[in-house]
Amino acid sequence: MLFRRALLCCFVVCACKSPASNAGSPLTVTLPSPDGTPSSPTPTHASAAVLGPSTSANVDTSAGTIPWLRDLDAGWAEAEKRGRPLLIYVRAAWKPACLEVERTTLLRASVVRAARPYVPVFVDLDDQQTLTRVEARVSAEAVSRLPSFVLIDTKSGRRQVSSVTLDAERSSGELAAFVSEP
Q: Hey, which of 35, 63, 83, 86 has its CA 20 to 30 A from 72?
């Protein structure tokens, strides 16, 4: 029982640290009582702090943060409408590397600046339906390389998938290079 409670607490911590489309809304968790019967729901607070500027003291956030959209279809339509490339960040809340990249690389000023020409979309592979949509519409390779960037030129259809690492200069260089290619 203690193990199940610890595992549930670990899940709640991960869920609260992951950026959710309904950031700031209450998340209700029901913890079992010591005798195994369900207790009353316990409200906690989910937040998008992982992508907020106060997340890490050693990260230069002078360039602000990336203004992520949370809906893949809306982001795609926006990119086509504005004639801009699409930057899709694909992640999973259960993968520690994704959380670390979000606390560091995605907040670095060089990456934020390099993302400006794009329509940025944040995709969390939180359920099978989202996973299937991303594999079909974007790239199965992106799912296998979490965390990953998928860069799409909506005019030509050109695509590039790359793993996102803690090397912010590499990530910002890839973003800049894709935009500068014809």
A: 63
| DSSP 3-state of 46 | coil
- Contact predicate 30/12, CB 8 Å: no
- Residue type present at position 12: V
Domains and CATH numbers, the chain: 2-47 (no CATH), 51-180 (3.40.30.10)
Predicted local confidence at residue 171, as pLDDT: 95
Q: Which two tokens stand for residue 105?
A: 């690389």
pLDDT for residue 167 is more than 80: yes
Provide mean pLDDT across the span 53-64.
Answer: 54
Residue with tokens 């913890």: 31
The Cα 112–Cα 168 span in angstroms is 10
Alpha helices in 18-167 (DSSP H): 72-82, 96-103, 109-114, 128-137, 140-144
Instruction: Give the position of tokens 């390779």.
Output: 141
pTM of the shown model: 0.67
The amino acid present at 94, given as its one-letter code, is: W
Cβ–Cβ < 8 Å for 155, 83: yes
- Cα 136 to Cα 170: distance, rounded to the nearest angstrom: 27
CA separation for the pair 140, 26 (Å, rounded): 32
pLDDT tens, residue by residue, 70-106: 999 999 999 999 999 999 999 999 999 999 999 999 9
Helix, coil or strand: residue 86: strand
